[in-house]
Amino acid sequence: xxxxxxxxxxxxxxxxxxxxxxxxxxxxxxxxxxxxxxxxxxxxxxxxxxxxxxxxxxxxxxxxxxxxxxxxxxxxxxxxxxxxxxxxxxxxxxxxxxxxxxxxxxxxxxxxxxxxxxxxxxxxxxxxxxxxxxxxxxxxxxxxxxxxxxxxxxxxxxxxxxxxxxxxxxxxxxxxxxxxxxxxxxxxxxxxxxxxxxxxxxxxxxxxxxxxxxxxxxxxxxxxxxxxxxxxxxxxxxxxxxxxxxxxxxxxxxxxxxxxxxxxxxxxxxxxxxxxxxxxxxxxxxxxxxxxxxxxxxxxxxxxxxxxxxxxxxxxxxxxxxxxxxxxxxxxxxxxxxxxxxxxxxxxxxxxxxxxxxxxxxxxxxxxxxxxxxxxxxxxxxxxxxxxxxxxxxxxxxxxxxxx
Length: 404
Fold this sequence. Notes:
By secondary structure, the protein is α/β, with parallel strands linked by helices. The protein has 15 helices and 11 strands. Helix 6 (about 220-230) links the parallel strand 5 (about 215-220) and strand 6 (about 240-245).
């Protein structure tokens, strides 16, 4: 009954936010749906799964990044930083981030996570898909509460027999918040490596115990963190799935992305939701900015784009700036690798991916079974386009075809 009540409440909250029940007195009695994504409890749990939420202390050791520019406190300072950063090459030469002293650092952080395993088992439940989200929704990226039959990856994967472990990255959702001027790709890599080892040892997997196989999956920034984690330690997983990924610098227009995101200080955009984060955390200015970068018209439902905006989480400026700084050579990994990206991915393919997915990905994974796949009609947020279930099927078929 608790699960049903939570799901009904979330459904009402989303409808209220999308004005589909405008004027309904019940809308004034619930919190905004965005508030659900900052709590340990998920707004939706797939009915075909047994799910457990955890708050996990995670030990990390990471390359220490220093933010070298002036730290801002408002949007005026942020705009000035972005103005300088995106000025043509050769005018300003001071890199905004670099190695700090000491060069490596250790910490213990608390990470919010959910583990779901099938109610009806077919033998594949011992393969755990370990999921790292990107910039946008937190761990609900994998567990969309809106039209879950069409957009919920966890529910689909569980229907195919797989277990899924998904978590809020550091600085998002219910996980610990660190300074947005200090968070980085290197912290994200270390968090994933540590969590993978915990899951591999059967911790935080409920009654499942130790899994037989682990497949790591990432989305966008989470794919870069996943790739970096595998490059540094290929033993953490048996298969790799990189969604919304692109390594070819021909398609990565960094200055263009900084402009198209139209970043604003998140805590000033919405202090009720993001007031627990310092001015180093930013977010795009409105839903149309997200649509520009994440969706491809007319291949999405505007209601789903509205949902994505209500579920968005801020990102640390140093995460963005350190994105391309992680390790690239993953030649020590010898398992199967799927790189799946939307045909019209704006972020990593500058709007059109054909011809960009083969290399240098195949070279990075030269000793692995590297499978590039371009998902038709989708942009960056390929799990929220009309054909999302087609992407889900490609992923689970890839696992099954490779003995997972």
